[in-house]
Amino acid sequence: MTWLSRIHEDIGAAMRRDPAARSATEVLLTYPGVHALLIHRIAHRIDAAGHPLAARLLSHLGRMLTGIEIHPRAQIGHDFFIDHGMGVVIGETTIIHDHCHLLQGVTLGGTSTRREKRHPTLEEYVTVGAGAQIIGAVTIGAGAKIGAGSVVVSSVPPGATVVGVPGHVIAYTNRSNDTVERLPDPEWDRIDALERRIGDLERQLADARATSAIPTPQQGAVTAE
User: Fold this and answer.
1) Contact 91, 119 (CB under 8 A)
2) How many C-beta atoms lie closer than 10 Å to residue 153's C-beta?
3) What is the dihedral of CA 65, 68, 73, 77, to 10 degrees?
4) Could you give the count of Cα atoms lying within 13 Å of 77 in the half-sphere of its Cβ?
5) What is d(CA 13, CA 82) in angstroms, rounded to the nearest whole number?
6) Cα 11 vs. chain centroid, distance in angstroms?
7) Contact of 10 with 35, CB cutoff 8 Å
8) Where are the alpha helices (DSSP H) in the chain?
9) Helix or strand run (H / E) with residue 107
10) How many whole angstroms separate alpha carbon 8 and alpha carbon 193?
């Protein structure tokens, strides 16, 4: 693939995934995620050609210009889009397959200090929400969705939707018919039950005040002299 066709592909990915994009010119001139990706693709080639320091300097320049840090040795596939982008960090041994989508504040980080595979692998069609952190040499299965603010430290099956800290699976998407099967979520069920119970108690208290002399907090306030 030529450089011109690669740039066209990256711009096309932004236009397909961002309804705010109005034209290819707008995307090319104003989208930091596209700028960071173009710089990374150049830095990646420079590093592969045996010039790691030059690649890191170019990567560092890209970080200063865009607020997005991508290590030159990270492997990024086709049709990739970083939306907004500020604060995104993509570590050295990260592998991102085709058609993935990251939002701002995402960290694809490592836990090991050894020179080994220590960053995540994202399979095809993975979406990672704003502020999510995926840490370690874990694999995020094809079509998975990571909710905003989630912290993922273990591998995620294909088609799963993950939320929370630590991240846990709450649903699976069947990509063949685009249906979503929700899983039981005991934590959410408990919170929902507590909210309903609080609502019932508030209504009972309001009814009791309406039919008796129970003062409201304002009526019962005592002013010290």
Assistant:
1) yes
2) 14
3) -110
4) 14
5) 9
6) 20
7) no
8) 3-17, 24-30, 32-48, 52-66, 186-211
9) strand 107-109
10) 51
3-state secondary structure 133-192: EEECCCEECCCCEECCCCEECCCECCCEEEECCCCEEEEEEECCCCEEEECCCHHHHHHH
Q: What angle do CA 97, 101, 105 make, to 5 degrees?
A: 115
Quick count: other Cβ atoms within 10 Å of Cβ 70?
27
What is the residue type of 3?
A: W
- Give the closest residue to 126 by CA, choosing from 111, 138, 114: 138
pLDDT tens column, 2-39: 767 888 888 999 999 989 989 999 999 999 999 999 99
Q: Which residues pair with 168 in a beta bridge?
A: 163
| AA identity, residue 86 | M
User: What is d(CA 82, CA 164) in angstroms, rounded to the nearest whole number?
Assistant: 22
Only one residue has tokens 């309001």, namely: 206
Do 171 and 182 touch, CB atoms closer than 8 A? Answer: yes
Length of the chain in terms of residues written: 225
According to the model, what pLDDT value does residue 169 have? 82
- Fold designation for 3-182: UDP N-Acetylglucosamine Acyltransferase; domain 1 (2.160.10)
pLDDT tens digit string along 79-138? 999 999 899 999 999 999 999 999 999 999 998 788 889 999 999 999 999 999 999 999
> Could you tell me if 66 and 110 are in contact, meaning their C-beta atoms sit under 8 angstroms apart?
no
